[in-house]
Amino acid sequence: MLTINKNRVMPLAVTPHSFLATTDIFKNIPSEGLREIERRMVEKKYSKGSSLFLEGDPAQYVWFVKEGHVKAVIHAPNGRCQALCMVGAKSMFGACCSLGGGTYPCNGIAETDVTVISYPLSDFLSLMDRYPQISRAVITHISKRLRHSKDNQAFEQESVEKRVLHVLANMVAEFGNTIPLTRREIAEMAGTTVETSIRTFSKLEGLGLVSTVRGKITVKNVKDLADRMGEV
Question: For residues 171 and 163, what is the distance between their CA atoms, to the nearest angstrom?
């Protein structure tokens, strides 16, 4: 059973080089606006494996990752834990399910030790009214997540190799060519077993597409990865 652990909570410190200014959502907001926004935000630290929120919890906050990475997880009908997405530093998460209110349809899990920032949903909706640039950035963000979700559904019936390649392509978009994830984590997102994932990565390494070391996967050439995905 997933539980929410007790974690450190502190007001967000306002600094000359604001973290928010580095995010896609807030990068076009003037500095005086950022200072006002930051006064309402709370910085929280969660240890690896902790739950930020659980499926069914009231969707009261929008979240931003400052350090580490976070995944959204559901439990599939077969009992397997299915990772819907993984987000890294400077990314927003929870917006797709929280902006409409209601409850979270998934579990938000700290995949590593993480530092996140939470912002009350009601205040964030007011910000979207006040700053059209935030609204545009949120629409772009949600559209991207919805496209990924639709693509994931389209790949459900594909071979394991193609699903793994698809996940890798998405993770390159999130983290760059060096992906700070394990083969187990990729397996979880591809909907396969760790053993099958290891065999698939051995094949991809043999083809010169990727290299793996503990806790890290490097995609050597994104075009070659895309070409392979079209072949299998």
Answer: 12
